[in-house]
Design goal:
The chain is α+β, with helices and mostly antiparallel strands. The protein has helices at residues 5-10, 20-28, 42-52, 108-111, 175-180, 192-206, 222-232, 255-265, 270-273, 291-300, 332-335, 341-344, 385-390, 396-408, 416-421, 431-445; strands spanning 58-63, 66-71, 80-84, 90-91, 94-95, 100-104, 115-120, 125-130, 133-139, 151-153, 163-165, 172-173, 186-187, 190-191, 213-216, 240-242, 266-268, 277-282, 305-310, 374-375. Helix content is 30%, strand content 18%.
Length: 448
């Protein structure tokens, strides 16, 4: 999103913060390139915003008596539509009309106000809530969508019955299932709790261990630990008491703050630990700032052995979608080989890191026919180099330079096979120059 800052500043607008929300507001304040008639066309303005900024956000925009819900074309971040019904939803005259509708990033929020989940906002969709009801205004496809999207009829349960464009193949962040989302939220037709529990069951099959008790790092890993216990037959016992007044350690700005947050966050249940072999199930290991202090805490409380089981693949790559994982070097999985991580966290216990690469993909119900409908870039290189050449917003400024350099050679494509093979453009002697420019770009992305 920050690559739009120079464009905003060139119009004489001063930015008072580094927030993406301020940039979005400024972009919405300008008319779209196609122009407007006598008043702002908010649907067109939002569409222009989505086309200019394909990743990664979910937005709720309030304007007068209307609310717009917007999800980026990749569907990387969640956004749901809720429906608030009156008490006694049916009468002798038939179903009652809804009292209202609402947006939320997670469906769990609807329960607290007596609403129910209607559906998720589709990737690239613009949904309008007004006194007249719910209306799907537009569907913006993912960048470089070469085939036309087919038409589909909206589910009869939805308020509007117009035909809308099918959502493009999604790239929903799998870390929502692993850590971010509350366990009672529903994504893609399945509850997060159930997904995590199935991951724990699969992990027990992949990496069995001889132990006395199964436990967890509360709270996001609890369903996975229960699944591990259910599959292995080893009883589940709580060994950590969580201080609920301490925030998430993952999102702290630096390593020292994250370690201090861990120390304040957990206390050991000594009587449950004394002399026992413990399997501690965690949802993920990112920087390793949590697992080391926790293992030391369990050992000091009397645990005989501590075995670590991780219910998701290792994070090896930065997140280019806005999550605070800026460099490869700070990720624990990149600092040491997996079989040496026990010594790295300075633990005398029997520390076994087990990475279940299939625990998520095996159990996710594919709602759309796509080979890889979830974003898993941080865990495996699922995107091709073409992702950097065409889409990744982090390298937009470098991509602009590359394209301008290619244009000087009369090369109008960024298709990697075409660039490297020299097909479709002449003279062939320019092939070396094109390869050199492309490789220079890839070095800037850190992928070469």
């Amino acid at each position: 999103m920050t690559f739009h800052s120079p464009q905003i500043l060139e119009r004489g607008v001063g930015l008072s913060t580094q927030s993406d929300s301020e940039l979005i507001t400024q972009m919405l304040s300008q008319a779209p390139p196609r122009g407007e008639k006598d008043k702002p066309d908010w649907g067109a303005r939002i569409r222009h915003l989505i086309e200019a900024t394909p990743t990664a956000y979910s937005l709720v925009i309030l304007h007068e008596d209307k609310i717009y819900g917007v999800r980026d074309p990749f569907g990387n971040r969640p956004l749901c539509i809720g429906r608030l019904m009156p008490a006694g939803s049916t009468t002798d005259d038939g179903p009652r009309k809804p009292l209202g509708w609402m947006f939320s990033s997670e469906s769990c929020a609807f329960q607290s106000v007596g609403a129910t989940l209607m559906r998720e906002v589709y990737p690239g969709e613009i949904v309008e809530l007004s006194p007249d009801g719910v209306r799907s205004l537009d569907m913006v496809p993912r960048p470089k969508c070469s085939t036309p999207l087919s038409m589909a009829h909206v589910d009869p349960d939805h308020v509007d019955h117009e035909d809308i464009l099918l959502a493009p193949p999604p790239a929903f962040c799998i870390f929502e299932y692993v850590y971010f989302a509350r366990a009672d939220s529903v994504f893609e037709g399945q509850q997060v709790y159930s997904v995590r529990q199935r991951c724990g069951q699969q992990l027990a099959l992949e990496s069995p261990v001889d132990a006395d008790i199964i436990s967890t790092v509360p709270e996001s890993a609890t369903p996975s630990a229960l699944g591990f216990s259910l599959e292995s037959g080893i009883p589940y016992v709580e060994v950590l008491c969580k201080n609920r007044y301490v925030g998430r350690s993952f999102i702290q700005p630096d390593t020292r703050s994250r370690k201090l947050a861990v120390v304040k966050k957990f206390g050991a249940l000594t009587e449950n630990l004394m002399g026992r072999r413990v399997v501690l199930v965690d949802d993920s290991i990112v920087r390793g700032t949590t697992v080391g202090p926790i293992i030391q805490l369990l050992r000091q409380a009397g645990a005989k052995e501590v075995h670590i089981r991780v219910a998701s693949p290792p994070l090896k790559y930065p997140c280019y979608m806005g999550i605070n994982i800026p460099t490869r070097g700070e990720l624990l999985a990149n600092q040491k080989p997996l079989d040496e991580l026990a010594n790295f966290v300075a633990c005398s216990a029997v520390l076994l890191f087990t990475i279940g690469h299939t625990t998520l993909t095996v159990h996710l119900h594919r709602l759309r026919q796509s080979p890889d409908p979830h974003c898993s870039w941080c865990r495996k290189v699922s995107e091709t180099i073409e992702h950097f050449l065409l889409q990744c917003p982090r390298f937009h400024s470098h991509r602009v330079v590359l394209r301008s350099q290619l244009l000087t050679l009369n090369v109008t494509t960024c298709d990697l096979p075409t660039l490297l093979a020299g097909g479709g453009w002449r003279p062939p002697s320019w092939q070396h120059a094109v390869i050199r420019l492309t490789c220079a770009f890839l070095r800037k992305t850190g992928q070469l």
